[in-house]
């Protein structure tokens, strides 16, 4: 059971913040290798592995898109730990002038800080900055927090060549629930200051996973902060393991005479256990021969 830092509100307004998450099978790994937009790939992998959200057991892509971004990140981290283990390793280059030393990174997934949503609501009132056209009138909008569908839409806008400002407008217009009946506050009339105010509100309000990892350069002693791109990292590991997946299928099929269908139904850790037994048997045979 995974507790979500945000939570999912269903059509009746009921909050669901616990998820039963299954494991990623070889068949899932194979299917995900062809995914394109990272946010869309996260939707597909979670739709294939989430078994239940609270009392909701009918899980599809549309439902997963409605999960808050931080909730999806927490689930992806849990899935990553179950598939590849609890530690993440990598490297970066020290950017201190005159250094350029490569730095090894290594940390446990459980060490990443998660900020839960303090006040769980389906939507929130957000104050806008004063507008000269409205005098001192208070300007407010009602917004919901960004979800996976919003993330997919923003990714698609950026890939299509949209600017950062255009991507922000796409996000805000999607998250805008109500303008409170104020005719001066419509989506198309929101100015740059309004968009930035709403963006700051969403960032400050939404739950978050701190993906900033610090490492000290062994050469110059500088502390380097690296922002982990969780989606690219996770799917990069899957792509890197593609050749290994088919080698696993081959080795298990040769030794146990299992079908490809049965082998791809196994999770990566379970495949590894059987491959370990094969290796031990071979070592024993070599020692005895």
Helices and strands in order, then pairings?
Elements: E1 2-9, E2 15-21, H1 26-32, H2 38-49, E3 50-53, H3 61-65, H4 69-84, E4 87-93, E5 102-108, E6 114-115, E7 124-127, E8 140-143, H5 148-159, H6 164-175, E9 176-178, H7 192-205, E10 208-209, E11 212-216, E12 223-227, H8 230-240, H9 242-256, H10 260-264, H11 268-288
Antiparallel strand pairs: 1-2, 2-3, 4-5, 6-10, 7-8, 8-9, 11-12
Structure description:
With 289 residues, the protein is an alpha+beta fold. The chain folds into three domains: 144 residues, no CATH class; 83 residues, rbstp2171 (2-Layer Sandwich); 36 residues, no CATH class. It has a three-stranded antiparallel beta sheet with strand order 1-2-3. Helix 2 runs antiparallel to helix 5. The termini are far apart. The protein is globular and about 90 Å long. The model has no long low-confidence stretch (mean pLDDT 86). The protein contains eleven helices and twelve strands.
């Amino acid at each position: 059971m995974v507790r979500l830092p945000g939570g999912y509100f269903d059509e009746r307004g009921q909050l669901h913040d616990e998820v039963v998450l299954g494991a990623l099978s070889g068949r899932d790994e194979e299917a995900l290798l062809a995914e394109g937009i990272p946010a869309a790939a996260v939707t597909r992998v979670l739709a294939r592995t989430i078994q239940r959200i609270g009392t909701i057991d009918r899980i599809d892509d549309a439902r997963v898109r409605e999960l808050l971004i931080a909730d999806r990140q927490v689930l992806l981290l849990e899935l990553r730990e179950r598939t590849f283990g609890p530690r993440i390793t990598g490297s970066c280059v020290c950017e201190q002038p005159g250094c350029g030393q490569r730095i090894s990174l290594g940390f446990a997934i459980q060490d990443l800080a998660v900020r839960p949503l303090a006040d769980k609501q389906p939507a929130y009132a957000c104050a806008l900055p004063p507008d000269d056209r409205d005098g001192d009138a208070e300007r407010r909008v009602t917004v919901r927090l960004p979800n996976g569908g919003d993330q997919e839409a923003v990714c698609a806008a950026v890939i299509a060549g949209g600017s950062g400002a255009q991507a922000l407008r796409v996000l805000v217009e999607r998250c805008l629930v109500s303008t409170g009946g104020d005719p001066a506050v419509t989506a198309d009339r929101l100015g740059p200051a309004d968009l930035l105010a709403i963006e700051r509100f969403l960032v400050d309000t939404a739950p978050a996973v701190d993906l900033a990892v610090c490492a000290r350069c062994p050469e110059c002693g500088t502390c380097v902060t690296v922002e982990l791109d969780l989606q690219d990292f996770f799917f990069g590991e899957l792509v890197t393991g593609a050749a290994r997946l088919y080698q696993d299928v081959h080795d298990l099929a040769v030794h146990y005479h299992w079908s490809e269908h049965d082998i791809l139904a196994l999770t990566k850790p379970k495949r590894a256990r059987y491959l370990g037994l094969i290796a031990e048997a071979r070592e024993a045979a070599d020692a005895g021969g």
